[in-house]
Every structure is written in C-alpha cells, then in structure tokens.
C-alpha cells in the first residue's frame, strides 16, 4: 500500500491503513502493533509501533446471548420480587377471625339426666 512512498527529511507523515480480522477471531479488545520497514540512503530500517487498543465486535448482531440471558434473569427476579411483595401484603391484610370456643367432653353433667346410662 505504501510502496515507493517518499517522505522528505525532518518531516513527519501519516499513512492511513485498513486491516481486517479473521472471522474465527473471538470478539474482544486487542492491542494493535505494527512494523514499518523503510529505507534511508539505501540503508534499510524498521520500526515497530503500538497503535492502542482496538475492539473487535461481532458484525450485525441485534441481540447477543449474554444480553438475552441478563434480560431474562432480570425479568424473572422482578417477577419473584413482585410475588413476594404480594404475599407479604396479603399476610398483613388478612383479617383474623376469632373462632368461638367449643368445649367437648369437659362439661359437668348430672348422671341422672342420662337415662340411657341407667
């Protein structure tokens, strides 16, 4: 791309470059390092440069599996929280009924009133 480019002495130059990554490369941050080979007075030189971190992303993905999972997890936690709050409100708003006391077998009776026992 830069073949036979000429830069005068004591002058800086910038050259745009385009690169592509393999489709098998996983998305994530990478450091971009390059080497430039040049010649001054017919003596070859080379310099290595660091051009910061680049971010490799998947092209055209509307939803990633991670975002779908996190969204589903968030909705599930909100539903569980809602059910718990609903149960707490129902427990607090229940009216407690007072049941009438029923005695069975402890009443004192006169045995003479029970004719069937005689």
TrEMBL record:
Keyword Transmembrane found: yes
Transmembrane annotation, as ranges: 68-87
GO cellular component, one term: endoplasmic reticulum
Domain of life per record: Eukaryota
Keyword terms of this UniProt record: Membrane, Transmembrane, Transmembrane helix
Protein's recorded name: Translocon-associated protein subunit alpha-like
Species of provenance: Trifolium medium
């Amino acid at each position: 791309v830069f073949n036979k480019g000429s830069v005068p002495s004591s002058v800086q130059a910038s050259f745009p470059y385009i690169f592509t990554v393999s489709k098998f490369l996983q998305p994530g941050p990478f450091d971009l390092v390059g080497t430039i080979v040049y010649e001054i007075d017919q003596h070859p030189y080379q310099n290595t440069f660091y051009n910061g971190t680049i971010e490799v992303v998947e092209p055209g993905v509307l939803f990633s599996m991670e975002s779908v999972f996190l969204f589903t997890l968030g909705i599930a936690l909100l539903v569980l929280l809602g059910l718990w709050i609903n149960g707490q409100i129902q427990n607090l708003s229940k009216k407690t009924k007072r049941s009438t006391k029923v005695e069975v077998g402890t009443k004192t009776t006169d045995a003479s009133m029970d004719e069937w026992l005689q």
